[in-house]
Amino acid sequence: MALADVVFQLGLVVVAGHLLAMLFVVERSGRRRSRGLVSLVDRIRSNLTAVAPTLGALAAVLAVNKVVRDVGVELSWLIGINLTGNIYLLESQFVATIQRFAHPALTAYFGFVYVFGYTFLLTFPVLAYAICERARPLRVLFRAYILNYGIGLLCYVLFVAYGPRNFMPELVEPLLYASWPQSQLLVQQVNVNTNVFPSLHASLSATVALLAYRFRAVYARWLPVATALAVSITVSTMYLGIHWATDVVAGIVVAWVSVELAERTEEGTIREPLRRLQGRESEAVRR
Amino acid sequence: MAESSKGCGVRRREMLGALGAGAAASVGGCLRRARSIAGWESMERVSLRIKTLPADADPYALHTARALTSWYQAAGIDAQVVPVSEEELLRQVLLSKDFDIFLIRTATIQRDPDIFYPLLHSRFADARGRQNPFGYTDLDVDEWLERQRRATGERRREIVAELQRSIARSQPFTVIGFPDEIRAARRANYTNWRSANLRAPQGYLTLKRGGEGPSETNEANAGDEEAVLRVVGTDRRATENLNPLSVEYRRSGVLTGLLYDSLGRVTSEGTTPWLAASWAFSETGDDPRAAVRLRSGQTWHDGEPLTAEDIAFTYALLADTSLGSSEGQDGETAAETRVPAPRFQGRSGLVEDVQAAESDVAVFRFRDCSPRVATRAFTVPILPKHVWQARTGPASISGIEVGSATEALVTNNIPPVGSGPLRFVQNTPRESLVLETTGNHFLFDERDAGEREVVGPPEFDRLEIQVVGSDDAAVGVVAEGDADVTGTPVGADTVPRIGRTGGLELLVNRSAAPYIVGYNTQIPPLTNPRFRHTLARLVDRSHIAADVFNGYARPAVSLLEGTEWVPDDLRWDGTDPVTPFLGTEGELNIPQVRSEFRNAGFQYEAEKLVRMT
User: Fold this and answer.
1) pLDDT means per 10 residues in chain B (613 residues)?
2) Under an 8 A CB cutoff, do A193 and B469 touch?
3) Where are the bilayer-spanning segments (chain A) (predicted)?
């Protein structure tokens, strides 16, 4: 079965990626503090205990996501707004312009990054933050994921939009599926072709990169890796003809909002800016 | 706008002054003038939305629609493409009539002029379903449609020619052309691909087992084990719904045609008996009658016997899926509250009534038609009474009745109980569907094998349908050896790949399912036949056939192109004889376009086409 092959390949590559990245990112920077395997297991256990409610919430959101992917499409045709034409009016043939630089080597690279790089980028921080000394990075990560999926899901129900490869087939080639048709078997398991706005590929990658920056004190070496991968994945969504530039911009906005909210809820400071804002307003009134 | 401000150009101070001076009379005059100008002001840009399928679902539709919008825009029309999923498109177009223009590939067109009757008769203009989606009304066309049903021979040919000329002029829809159907088939497990017509249910029954030697080992070749025919397609709807009456879930009806038998099947010689052993027409009065004798010993997939009662029930249900059960509400009679099936109305409408005379003889009375046209009614699927009788009540969601639809129209009908050569095994929505052969079918009956020359019992035991996201992926699955054939036709882009891959056969067949552009003739400016006529002249169909279809299509004027029914003056001869392209080589001649639109009563403002509202 072709799908099983693709999943197997994906698993193999991602596990290999995890091992390499562990050696590069965690092992060396953590060596000073390392106190043996026992403390590692303890740390993972205590971190998992600390983030258990958040993890549960994430699992619930992912489960809902799975259900909504099937039901949501129906619902979204019922109540959603078809944005495709408007996005095209907004950015016209930008994606077709990007594809003018198409080259087999680039296609291979971006195709690899889109499928393998993305899975790695999303899963690695979970492992990495699980073994660090504090529970906070892991909890913020999970919260940001929850927010990403939540906002994404809401948008997918509210908006119907097809990607550029579906809208201007004469200008934009489905490069990923043309060069590696089996990948579509995998992609169609997780994606519906009317759900392109915003790009979850862009938003989740950007989320990981933003968090890598916030927690650069924990894993300094992770920041450049995460940034490079996130940028590549973001470009790949457009290069492969899957997303519009508008989706990517919206995705980055979703990422920023999710990270901000995740941090604020973690610190309990979500009210403060509001209070500050209110204060400014009342000042203005007094004046 | 500029004129009005000049004519009434009063500054605020002057206005106050005027008011202050008590010169209210002059203000009154000014307002009157503004009102009369307003009557002339309401010009509106002509704006059209073309609804069509995304590239994943149809390899050509969206590209064609974009070519159309670029011509429309060049002509000054505000045009935009709206991609919609197939199921949703059919729902919006056929059920809620929520569209300006749609571009779609039709279902396979039967080679009989009576197809125009349900498509264009004004009695269906407000009906939901496959009938008259354009909302087209024309009394002359109505008359021709009715007369061709009764006429025979040369007379009918003349009426049909007149009818087609009128349609070509008034353009309720524009025929883009007939595409070639491209498929990839694996030679390893099955043969006879070239002569099997996979657009009809019988095509799957004519495939032969065995292939090119034992180079590939597969379940299908492994001796006594089950033979599986694996089909991969891009249309997922059959995995979710197998109701033959659902208008938005059916395209060709091939799968439901394998599950459900009809009394007759369409062949090159017209309708020939299938589930019926024979039929005999008698013309006692004006209208024909027919006694239809069923093949003996037929059963439904659940073991119940198939009798003439089921035949009578089916035609009654197609005419009114509520079977009169909604009668009496608000003092309406049964005839007023009928809920007819949204498919097959043209065909079932030929039937006045059906009586079960004996357990295997049904007597049909037809209305206003010749026996030749009447046999068209024999091609609808026969449904089991014991299953569908319970579905005549109003449809409801969680017990709440919604709208006027009956359960029969909205049920997904899974598992289906039919009488066809294949029966349902299982489905995974959006992913797969499995059917298996049933030994009880008459095709397996050795006795009358001689009567059927081409179609024998299926040589496979199971039919597995797998759904993938696009035609590229479908060809990929066949190339990898995970399927035997692409069930839905694929785009011309995939041809080189099919040719390159060893063990694959490239199947290219002339199709009888054209791409058409349908207009909603009930909303302005599409109500205006001159406007539609000019709109059709903005489309260079030769250019589309070459550029979008890579030459794998033939442009056409009439839906009946390729049959003996098309008169010489309506045949495509490199250009359309009725609505020729206003330009050359895909480039519009803009001054000519503008003068055509002005002749049709439209105006141009700053190069934009506008109309009075």
Assistant:
1) 43 54 65 72 86 90 94 94 90 89 89 91 87 93 93 92 94 95 91 85 85 48 72 89 87 86 86 91 82 91 93 92 66 63 86 91 91 91 93 76 79 91 91 90 72 72 90 88 90 90 89 93 92 95 94 93 91 91 92 93 89 78
2) yes
3) 6-26, 109-132, 144-162, 196-215, 222-242
Quote the pTM value. 0.85
Q: Which amino acid is at B453?
A: E
B-facing residues of A in 88-147 (CB < 8 A) are: 88-89
Give the count of Cβ contacts less than 8 A between chain A and B: 77
3-class SS letters over chain A: CHHHHHHHHHHHHHHHHHHHHHHHHHHHHHCCCCCHHHHHHHHHHHHHHHHHHHHHHHHHHHHHHHHHHHHHHHHHHHHCEECHHHHHHHHCCHHHHHHCCCCHHHHHHHHHHHHHHHHHHHHHHHHHHHCCCCCHHHHHHHHHHHHHHHHHHHHHHHEEECCHHHHCCCCCCCHHHHHCCHHHHHHHHHCCCCECCCCHHHHHHHHHHHHHHHCCCCCCCHHHHHHHHHHHHHHHHHHCCCCCHHHHHHHHHHHHHHHHHHHHHHHCCCHHHHHHHHHHHHHHHHC
**Is A82 in the B-facing interface, judged by CB distances under 8 Å?**
yes
Closest Cβ opposite residue A169 in set B62, B88, B429: B62
CA distance A13 to A11: 6
Token output for B160: 């049909």
The complex scores an ipTM of 0.82
Select the residue of B59, B66, B84 nearest A168 (Cβ to Cβ): B66
Window 178-207 of A, Cβ < 8 Å to B: 178, 181-182, 184-185, 187-188, 193-194
DSSP string for B531-593: HHHHHHTT--HHHHHHHTSTT-EE--SSTTTTSTTS-GGGS-SSS-SSS--SEETTEE-HHHH
